[in-house]
Amino acid sequence: MASKYGWIITKDHLVETGYSGPSEVGVTGPRGCEFTEEELNKGQLFRMYDDDDILYYTGRIVGERDGCEPLFDFGMPNAGCTRLDLRMPDGTWEHTCS
User: Fold this and answer.
1) Are strands 93-97 and 28-29 parallel, antiparallel or unpaired?
2) CA-to-CA distance for 52 and 61, rounded, in angstroms?
3) Burial letters for 44-76: b for 16+ Cβ neighbours within 10 Å, e otherwise?
4) Cα–Cα separations (whole angstroms), residue 37 to 65, 82, 83
5) pLDDT for 15-68, tens place per residue?
6) In the chain, where are the structural domains located?
7) Three-state DSSP class for 69?
């Protein structure tokens, strides 16, 4: 069954600050996502942070969703992220889930 939403990691802030692990840029989800990379890159911006408010990832999300999916699909299990903020149409960032 195809997912009704999709997301992509567009910036891995850990790698940019010297983390020696592989970059997560380009990782998409969830499994079964049928959105193209072009479609994903037009989505709403999000940021994921750890519990010390360190920015780990920036990405984009599209489709029918509540906005927390990248955190639960990827950020928490992959890197221990605990918070996701979405960029609102007026340019402000809104804490949406943790």
Assistant:
1) unpaired
2) 24
3) ebbbbbbeeeebbbbbbbbbebebbbbbebbbb
4) 18, 25, 24
5) 888 777 899 999 999 988 999 999 999 999 999 999 999 999 999 999 998 879
6) 5-97
7) helix
Is the pLDDT at 2 greater than 70, yes or no?
no
pLDDT over 60 at 1, yes or no: no
Contacts of 90 (CB under 8 A, 6+ apart): none
In one letter, which amino acid is 79? A
Smallest CA-to-CA distance from 62 within 86, 35, 87, 85 is with 35
What is the pLDDT at residue 21? Answer: 83
The model's pTM is 0.91
The count of residues in the chain is 98
Strand pairing category for 55-63 and 5-12: antiparallel
Phi, psi at 59, each rounded to 5°: -160, -170
Q: How far is CA 20 from CA 13, 14, 16, in A?
A: 12, 9, 10
